[in-house]
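dumping the sequnces here before i forget
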Amino acid sequence: MEHYNMNLTLKVWKQKNTNAQGGFETYSVKNISSEMSFLEMFDVLNEQLINEGKEPVAFDHDCREGICGMCSMHINGRAHGPWAGTTTCQLHMRAFKDGDTITVEPWRSGAFPVLKDLTVDRTAFDRIIEAGGYISVNTGNAQDANCLPVDKHSADLAFAAAACIGCGACVAACKNSSAMLFVSAKVSQLALLPQGDPERKTRALNMVAQMDKEGFGSCTNTGACEAECPKEISLTNIARLNREFIGAGFTSEK
Amino acid sequence: MLNAKIPAGPLNNKWEDYKGHCKLVNPANKRSLEVIVIGTGLAGASAAASLGELGYKVKAFCFQDSPRRAHSIAAQGGINAAKNYQNDGDSVFRLFYDTVKGGDYRAREANVHRLAEVSGNIIDQCVAQGVPFAREYGGLLSNRSFGGTQVQRTFYAAGQTGQQLLLGAYSALERQVALGNVKMYSRHEMLDIVKIDGKARGIIARDLVTGELERHFGHAVLICSGGYGNVFYLSTNAMGSNVTAAWKATQNGAYFANPCFTQIHPTCIPVSGDHQSKLTLMSESLRNDGRIWVPKKQNDTRKASDIPEDERDYYLERRYPAFGNLVPRDVASRAAKERCDAGYGVGTSKQAVYLDFAAAIERYGNIEAGKRQLSNLSKAEIIKLGKEVVAEKYGNLFDMYAKITGENPYEQPMRIYPAVHYTMGGLWVDYELKTTVDGLYSLGEANFSDHGANRLGASALMQGLADGYFVIPYTLGNYLADEIRTKPIPTDHPAFVEAENKVKSTLSKLMSIKGTKSVDHFHKKLGKIMWDKCGMARNEQGLKEAIEEIKALRAEFWKDVRIPGSENEFNPELEKAGRVADFLELGELMCIDALHRRESCGGHFREESQTPDGEAQRDDANFSYVAAWEYKGDGQYELHKEPLEFVECKPTQRSYK
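..and the predicted 3d for all of it:
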């Protein structure tokens, strides 16, 4: 692959803290290599800002290999930018060309308040998991692992749902700020496995209730979440969640 | 002399005996005992969850925005367990033996044996939590091979095993949060330990969003903060991975053991330029099927596809016919460096070797054609079938490689080079995982205990979860049983005030420097010194130079670092500065340790100590001990030794030939 360098204009959301008024700042960066990752380009920007005596841009990032789910930039109107199935940290500058203007915003959702610049608070996701995204088994309770065969098809589907990294791109991409893809991935993973069966009704009901309480919007089956999900979590998980939820609503004793 | 408090009796019975005789705490008393857990990776999350289940009052801290993001999440290949589901000769003893041998006889036998004993329970526990391990068509669990072993004992979930295990531990943790047994503090960083009457009694933490300092009391403190590979700047660690918690423990009297034992992983994507911020691992599982080679001709500039088979040097298969491409990591890394240094490297930088799947793709294609009873297929059709099989096994890794390099690994071999990955050294702990400070424990990668001088693949996940799920619930109780009369100490106690003032003054000092260079500038410089002089090969002269260079760099840092913003707000540059300040001290200690250990062993390769054919040469007569360093103030350390005794595994020259 040919390598090239580029000069770019960046329009970046700056916001001092949750309560402050935010706005776009315009920066230019030069000689950006096509081999850099998008976040390495931000490293260059921040180094430049520090050298100029200005405040760098705060953004979340950690593993930089697409698995921790911490990075979270809305790039040119798309969660995690232009590449399908890719987190911000795995987006590389090959995706852009010399002279481009790139607009970078934080996730936009009432349930994800901005902490500073591009950093948002996603603890709502933790609270949804607390509501039921687990199997109640204490350490030491387990039987031998192979006493519980799981047919390969279900195991593979459960794994595909479990690949969710909890980044929140689905919420950021959704016009309603719905967290249905996130919730459905966890409910599906556990509903597809025999271990998850005893708590499946309360899990679906409680996780959805917590999602609503956190202020996430409703699902209108647009599919933007699936299109922007860096782990390509399937929309069929939402259909499964709806089945689980409705079924639980009809048959639950509570 | 350090006392590891290893229980008496035969190796097989030590852990059973310990469990049978350790002190217990009754449920009513557990409710009034408070435990602080630093870090929420596999070790921290599993410990916090298990202790919460037992009824202790737990506070867990992580610097990330959620406990689910700890860097255990990035582990790819798998987790070992001596289940012997494959009927291929595995046993607790084999896993124990492989681990001690793989660690080049620098690990403590009793700890490693316990690890092997509980390994099977880990798999049971994870499956019960709903961890979606790979399965066979019959519904039972699947296994694969990893380096340094001749059995298939590695359980996996595609190339995302760490993620799935961590999400399992995280869900157990969140369940305890919901039940009120664990209080979670995310976006918090521990900045000091509070000691009262010689015992760890709490911490000072900084709320990273507001910048406020907080005091937290605990009857015990568990450091589960991971490894220190980021001292090299470039590593496979997450950007935030740091040594700060372990280093504050060191400054408070916990000894730091074997700091120079670092693992350089053989299969990582090579550095592409000065902008590089981290290195990405390509899982060791790829060496199951990939063949590693370089051209037989020096400075060969042909494309890989233009180099005929007989002009390729499959140097691992040539040098190590018994283990081939699956030799342990330290051996594979050194062999790659040797070829590149000798002028056989590939790619523009010449600091890379090929990892080639062409043979595997063809082999799988033929097998698949046989399964489907297809005959008379063209080579292209066979390769198409083979690519589908390889995609199912390693698809996410191949995709990641393609995104980072812009090259298609299905069509041309991957270029790989060794990179810093894991640190075997860490806080010295005894058999109970207690440091040299009472009430202060260390679990997982943050301690030194199980991997000796080299860790085998798929063993880090095993150790983190063993420590958290199955060891600490017993050993911590043995300590806390004597603490049931200790009432929670109010945080206005002078020790808390003093510790907080110390942290405050360090932060103010950092902010007041207002120098000219960014934190990253110093971190990169430190990384280069460490990689050049305390990396894959070390020698006396280089290490002596490195110590002087690090001292000078540290002095410059404290005079010239520039940190924008203030300490009373969300300030990522200030967070980094504190971590780099600690790395600047640890780096020096690593060089001191590497200089004093005049033998080669595992990942520690002293050029002065090698066999005639270039393998690491141990010196058991003089160095069969754990080197535990006591902090004595700025740049001063005193060496304490824990002699290693090998009863079951007699040390031999490690051979994989």
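Chain A has eight helices and seven strands.
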